[in-house]
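Appendix B. Raw example, untouched.
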Amino acid sequence: MPNVVRAGPFLHLYFVLGDDGEEYKRTIKKRIKDWVTPVSERRFQEWLIVHVSDSASSKTKPKFNLNLFSVFDKIKSDFNTGKKDRCVQMRLGDPESVAESWDLLVATLKESILSSLSQHVSCLDEDLRKFDSQRHYVGWNYFQLFAVKVI
C-alpha cells in the first residue's frame, strides 16, 4: 500500500536547560545522544535541539573562564550533522535577545516542518508515478492509483 501523510509527528524537539559545561559533559550529552539515535532513524521526521540559556546566570560567572566554548557551541559541534542546522539557542534575559531568539526558533521550526512535509509529498509523487507506470500490466489495480490520488 502507498505511503500516506499520516498524523504522526513531523518534528521532534529536545530542550536543554542550563549553561554548565561540566554537567553537559557528564549527563546531558549522553541523554541527547540516546534521544537522537532512534529519532534520526525515522523516515520523514525531523529533529531539533533547543538550548535555553539564561543570560542572567552567565553574568555571574567569573571573568576569566578557561572553558572557551559555551554549552551551545558544544551541542552544535556534537550534533549538527551535514548541512542542516539542528540546534537553536533561546536566550532569556533582555527583551531584545528574547525576541530575536523567538524569531529564530519559529523560523527554524517552520523550515523543519516544511522539510518533513516535502519529503512526504516527494514520496507520494514517487508512488503515483510508480502506480501510473504499471497500468499497462495485466492485473493492474486502478484502486491503488485512485487511493494515492485521493489522499
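End of appendix B.
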